Amino acid sequence: MHNPLMALEFTASYVRDSLDILRYYKRLAEGAVEQVPDEMLAEAPDGESNSIATIVKHLSGSMLSRWKDFLATDGEKPGRDRDAEFEDPFQTRVEMMAAWDAGWSEFFGALAGLTDADLGRKVTIRGEAHSVMQAINRGTTHTSYHVGQIVYIAKHFAGGRWKTLSIAKGKSADFNSAIGSGRASQR
After folding, report:
1. Cβ-contact 133, 119 below 8 angstroms
2. What is the pLDDT of residue 187?
3. CA-CA distance, 105 to 92, in Å (whole number)?
4. Whole-angstrom distance, CA of residue 154 vs CA of residue 152
5. How confident is the chain (187 residues) per 10-residue block, as mean pLDDT?
6. Spatial separation of the C-alpha atoms in residues 148 and 85, rounded to whole Å
7. Distance between the two ends of the chain, CA-based, in angstroms?
8. Most CB atoms within 10 A, among 1, 85, 93, 153?
């Protein structure tokens, strides 16, 4: 059995915990995307939804804007075209994953340079004042929201080939029993 949250370690550091949680969400999305055939990455489940490639384009654009020069500049960079992030999705897995990695690198780099003493510092996003902690919360919740969409869409397109990324349906008791006996395995 596998529970990806078990990789989190005890910490009293908000910054470290945020990094750990974000790494978990990155792994979760990547585990989902790996299960989707290449030709389905730019397909949306319906006319009102976004494709995985579109969501990745948006998340990458958001992360690059928000976290580049995080403490010194507004999180909404002048060159960002948010609306364009929802048009013309990436057409290849390679292109999509390069943008994905670039966004995450910016996000992780900004957070890695912080300490808990920075949490009360002021930053701006679209001219609105935020504490560093509020900006981290905003980035984490925005990212986890879209990762949930990616997982849901990936599961839809993977169909019967889907391999669960956490505790399988109907297997909670087995998982809890294995945890209790110390036999739960990690991937």
Report:
1. yes
2. 42
3. 20
4. 5
5. 57 94 97 97 96 98 98 96 96 97 98 97 97 98 98 96 89 82 52
6. 18
7. 8
8. 153
Report yes or no on whether pTM surpasses 0.70.
yes
Structure-token match 């928000």, residue found: 66
Tokens of 115: 């300490």
What is the DSSP-derived secondary structure letter of residue 159?
Answer: G
User: How far, in Å, CA of 99 to CA of 22, rounded?
Assistant: 17
Domains located in the chain, CATH noted: 4-8+16-180 (1.20.120.450)
What pLDDT, on the 0 to 100 scale, is given for residue 2? 47
Count Cβ atoms below 10 Å from residue 1 Cβ, excluding itself: 20
Say if CB 116 and CB 15 are below 8 A apart. Answer: yes
Environment class of 120 (CB within 10 Å of its CB; exposed 0-12, middle 13-18, buried 19+): exposed
Q: Which distant-in-sequence residues (6+ apart) come within 8 Å of 156 by Cβ? A: 45
Residues 6+ apart with CB under 8 A from 85: 54, 57, 58, 61, 62
- Report d(CA 25, CA 141) in Å as an integer: 10
